[in-house]
Predict the structure.
Amino acid sequence: MTRTPWAAVPEPSILGADLFRWLYIGRLTLLSGILAGALFAWFDADPSATLVATVIFLAALAVTGLSFWYTHVLQREPGETFRYGQVVLDVVLVTAVVHITGGPDSSFAPLYILVIAAGALLLPLPGGVLVGILASIVYFADVAWGHQSALTLDVALRIGLFALVALATGLLGDRWEVVVNDERAEQVVRFDGSTGASLGVRVTEG
């Protein structure tokens, strides 16, 4: 029995290949900007910051390239482990970016919200909430231990916002996944039906 490729059956783009494509593009665009900034200020920047920027860029480039090969070249449907891996990777990358750009004073901390929203779309409700909890924990850890800073009101509000976003987007993502799965099931039926009808016509003509 031949398995239908992931991209062969039409599906809503927000949970299909397009979502992963935009995830890959956004990830590499962010890290390219960070690396360019580090290279521009190479002699004035902290050597550890330039090292971290270079390492996370190369690691993200390698992982994203392999992920693109898996989802778009081989057209394999990503499983739950793959989805969790992508989201956790982005949490780690954003944490590294926040760390080298000031920690509690970093302007990149709101990027956690985008990662949480992506996790809500890629994962079931419990997974999306767990991503929000993970983002809150690693952000707090970087502030408290990575930069030896006290828990300020601004940091506490950000952590609370991450939790609220995780819960809200998790509920919306879970509901959206139900709708998408129903729609995709109907599209599979129509796809198989049209394929069967086409084969029937060919057999009749033959």
Helices lie at 17-40, 47-73, 80-100, 111-122, 125-146, 153-205. Residues 7-14 have pLDDT under 50 and may be disordered.
